[in-house]
Amino acid sequence: MACPALGLEALQPLQPEPPPEPAFSEAQKWIEQVTGRSFGEKDFRTGLENGILLCELLNAIKPGLVKKINRLPTPIAGLDNIILFLRGCKELGLKESQLFDPSDLQDTSNRVTVK
C-alpha cells in the first residue's frame, strides 16, 4: 500500500509563535485599562480584528464618538468597525499617515504591520 505524498511543511518541525513585541504588549495593556475589557486568550491582532474593541476604545476616550458598533460575527462587520475606528481617529486629530489600512488587521498574510 502506497503512502500519500506529504508536503514539505509536514517534514519541518512546528515553530512556536515568537513572543509579542514589547510595544504590542504595552498597547494591549493600555487598551485593556482604558476599556476595562480583556483580550483573554486572543493575541493582539486577533483581539482587534473585528474592530469592536477598537470602537469601544474610542468611546472610552470620547463617549459617543462611535454611534453604533456592529457586533455581528462576520468579516464585513469587522471591516465596518475598523473603518468607524479610523474615522474616529481622524476626528480626534490623527493624520492619515499615523493610521493603518483596514485590511492590515484582517489580512493574515501581512502580520508585520499589525500583530
TrEMBL record:
A single GO cellular-component term on record: stress fiber
Protein encoded by which gene: LOC105293881
Region (Disordered) residue spans: 1-23
Pfam families with a match to the protein in the record: CH
GO molecular-function terms, A-Z: actin binding; myosin II head/neck binding
SMART domains (UniProt xref): CH (SM00033)
Protein name as annotated: LIM and calponin homology domains-containing protein 1-like
Annotated ranges, domain Calponin-homology (CH): 21-115
Organism, as annotated: Pteropus vampyrus (Large flying fox)
GO terms classed as biological process: actomyosin structure organization; positive regulation of stress fiber assembly; regulation of focal adhesion assembly
Stretches with biased composition (Low complexity): 1-14
